[in-house]
Each structure stands twice: as C-alpha cells, then as structure tokens.
Amino acid sequence: MMESLDHGICLHLAQLVEDLTTSGSPSLNEDLIKNIKKICRTSDSYVEHTFHLVMKQLNKEHAEIRLSAFQIIDALFMRSHRFRELLVTDFQAFLELTVETDTDQPLPPPKLVARKLKETTLKAVQVWHQKDRKSVV
Known about the structure:
Elements: H1 7-21, H2 30-42, H3 44-58, H4 63-77, H5 81-89, H6 91-98, H7 111-131
Helix pairs in contact: 1-2, 1-3, 2-3, 3-4, 3-5, 4-7
C-alpha cells in the first residue's frame, strides 16, 4: 500500500541522508536529522524510502559512513513503528553490517570507528530491547 511519493521530497531525503552519512562528523547534524524526522512523520511511505536510503549507506565499505547511517537508524527506531518493522525484518543484515556477526564480512576501516560502531550498536540494541520488547528479538 505504497502511496504516491513526491519526487522532490524523495530527492531531498536522499540528499539529507547523503549529507549526514558523508560529513565525517562523529555526530549527526541536529537540523538535518530533524528535517528527516519531520518528513517521515508525514507518511509511512517516506519512512520506507528513508529506511532504504539508510540501508544503502550502511552497505558502504567505510566505517564512518556506517556509523552515521546507524545513528540515523537509532534516531528513527524508537520514533517510528514502521521503521522498527522494517529494521526487524532486515535485522540479520543490519547486525552483519554493524556488529560483524559474519566473520567472513569484517567491518570496513577505519578500525577505531568500526569498533565504535560495533559498541554503539550493541548498546543501542540493548536499549531498544528494554524499551520495546515486542519488536526486537
């Protein structure tokens, strides 16, 4: 039941996700993430679009991009039921890309950031589980 998406808004979301994940900053720009949240509040279809954009960035072979993508995921996870549903459906891939659950697919460099990604993700998953035991397995 995907409703029609505004092409301009989709392009704007793509640019926001790109800017947030390639800034090189250890934390997200608050104005940009607020903009994403505001758009996602308007429709589950934008939540779905954002989820796919973020997962695309999470697949990049650079730990800083993955860390920023994870931070977007963390920001949206507790605020959107639809986002939680999407992430839980793809949870194994999410864990492989953030905590190195598949030893054949090590996290990309830089190593310090990869370690931070792994630690931050594990802590967040514990918090998610405590807050919403039904969604996270």
